[in-house]
Amino acid sequence: MKFTIKNEKPANIRSGCVILGIFEHRKLSAAAAQFDKTTRGLLKKLLHDGEMDGKCGQTLLLPYPAGAQCERVLLVGCGKAGEFDGRNYGKAVAGATMAANRSGATDAVSYLAELDVSDRDSYWKVRTLVETTRSSSYTPDELKSKKDRHGYPLRRVGINMAAAAGALAREALVDGESIAGGVELARTLGNLPGNICTPSYLASQARKLGKTCSYLKVSVMDEAGMKKLGMGALLSVSRGSREPAKLITMEYKGGKAGEKPVVLVGKGVTFDAGGISIKPGAAMDEMKFDMCGAASVLGTLKACVDMELPVNVTGVIPTTENLPDGNASKPGDIVTSMSGQTIEILNTDAEGRMILCDALTYSAKFKPEVVIDIATLTGACVIALGSHAAGLLSNDDDLADELLAAGESAGDRAWHMPLWDEYQPQLKSNFADMANIGGREAGTITAACFLSRFTEKYRWAHLDIAGVAWKGGNEKGATGRPVALLTQFLLDRCTD
Ligand code: BES
Ligand code: MN
Ligand code: ZN
User: Which of 100, 273, 284, 325 could hold 240 in an S-S bridge, CB 3.0 to 4.6 Å?
Assistant: First the structure.
């Protein structure tokens, strides 16, 4: 899909589809009013006839509007004019995109980005239009022999903006396309089944990304290397699998030489059956999404490469399967992590923290500015926050605030949860330094407490994305979250 910035009157534009905003109740936006004038009151008449009211996301398509140069005009509801915020803007853009994709038009010009959105500037509006248009056009049909895609999907999208916004709008366009590409990569990897997306496959994808950029260096450690470093926790998970575990490192050096990197650690369990503590069968297929943390690290690094972001970012991905087997770890087994701390595995289904703890210890070697891990870690987080916000826990309140703000501005929100010492005793083991589970209460927090014992040497935050990384049900599929949050966090570091 190709995006361009335009500055033309809506009725003069030769396009497959002109997209105009309508507010509740039947209130024309400036561009719609202009269009209405040239078409001798066509829009007002239709609205008056009750064809559309302007509810947010609602659409109405008119072919060959007399008096205009376009083949179609698509009216999009934007909700109440006084309540047009970032969220409603996103809904309107998504609604317009889906209707335009169904319309048969292969090109469109949108007048939505010139609407006033409360607390958002032109840069944000253009970038969000690009990201939202791309993500609402995405269909996970790579593995279908008969594609779901629309017969004539949108190929070219013009974004109308006042000339004054020119340079900023063009920058927003590049950023938006880069972030959309990162989100798409995360979604595509997330949607791939476990028999294709194995640890070795993720490693090959990382290497492939490394080949696209001279300052992205990728290396992959095998199990022998992990053994040498004493990664007994990571290896305790992979021993039940016939696919070898990998530890992927991706060093992106877009920033100054010697500048400390932001380290992103992504959980890459390519299938989580639970191990010997096997999961129940219902919806177990969704445990192919247990590598979405890893996918978000790959997606974020791709966005960095495409934006040529001037920061140093290191991606670390521990990746393995978690399966039952004669050689698998058993409840009660005790292993020694790379940090030297011993862990009693009371539940083999709490495998994410086992692979992350060694990856977090390993991450200290990069002398990080901060470390952020991203993981589909606990079902408890889905219960606590549902699918709207990722859980955020941190040993540093400033870092937590920066991440919350990034999520807010990118429309990819997180919610801060406590990491108080009072929760730590839940991890007590009678036989080892700690247990790998903390009981029924506060499952998301005790999982983070476990990780906090491996992150004392640096500023660290943990994003539990179990509720946001994918959708179940009818529209099952990976969302690409939190690539937008992470990219925004990195962008914010470049501009201050
Ligand atoms: N990958 C799961 C977490 C998960 C479960 C995410 C369901 C999304 C939906 C993780 O490895 C896991 O199994 N966690 C256990 C931890 C428990 C054994 C302490 C869980 O949440 O049940
Ligand atoms: Mn598990
Ligand atoms: Zn898991």
Answer: 325
Ligand 1 contact, 466 CB (< 6 A): yes
> How far apart, in whole angstroms, are the C-alpha atoms of residue 321 and residue 198?
8
The per-residue pLDDT for range 208-256, each reduced to its tens digit, is 999 999 999 999 999 999 999 999 999 999 999 999 999 999 999 999 9
Whether residue 353 lies in the annotated active site: yes
Alpha-carbon radius of gyration of the chain = 24
Cβ distance 187 to 477 under 8 Å?
A: yes
What pLDDT is attached to residue 496? 64
Rounded Cα distance between 36 and 32, Å, is 6
Q: In terms of pTM, does the model score above 0.85? A: yes
Specify the amino acid at residue 472: G
- φ, ψ for residue 444 (rounded to 5)? -70, -40
Is residue 54 classed as helix, strand or coil in its secondary structure? coil
Cβ–ligand 1 distance for 376 under 6 Å, the answer yes
Statement: residue 150 has pLDDT above 70: no
- DSSP secondary structure of 2-44: EEEEE---GGG---S-EEEEEEETTEEPHHHHHHHHHTTTHHH
pLDDT, tens only, 34-47 = 999 999 999 999 99
Strands 262-266 and 370-375: parallel
Handedness of CA 234, 235, 240, 244 (dihedral sign): positive
In this prediction, what percent of the chain has a pLDDT beyond 90? 96
Dump the DSSP string for 94-142.
HHHHHHHHHHT-SEEEE-STTS--TT--HHHHHHHHHHHHHHHT----T
Nearest CA to ligand 1 atom 7: 379
Give the integer Cα–Cα distance in Å for 267 and 486: 15
Helices (H), 271-413: 292-307, 352-363, 379-385, 397-410
How many other CB atoms sit within 10 Å of the CB of residue 75?
A: 27
* 159-186 average pLDDT score: 93
Q: Contact 28/192 with Cβ under 8 angstroms?
A: no
Say yes or no to pLDDT of 464 above 90. Answer: yes
Spacing, Cα 484 to ligand 1 middle (Å): 24
The rounded distance, in Å, linking the Cα atoms of 491 and 259 is: 16
Ligand nearest to the CA of 284: 1
Which runs of consecutive H residues, i.e. helices, occur in 218-351? 223-229, 232-238, 292-307
155 is catalytic: no
Torsion of CA 5, 478, 452, 372, to 10 degrees: -20
Question: Does position 139 have pLDDT exceeding 70, yes or no?
Answer: yes
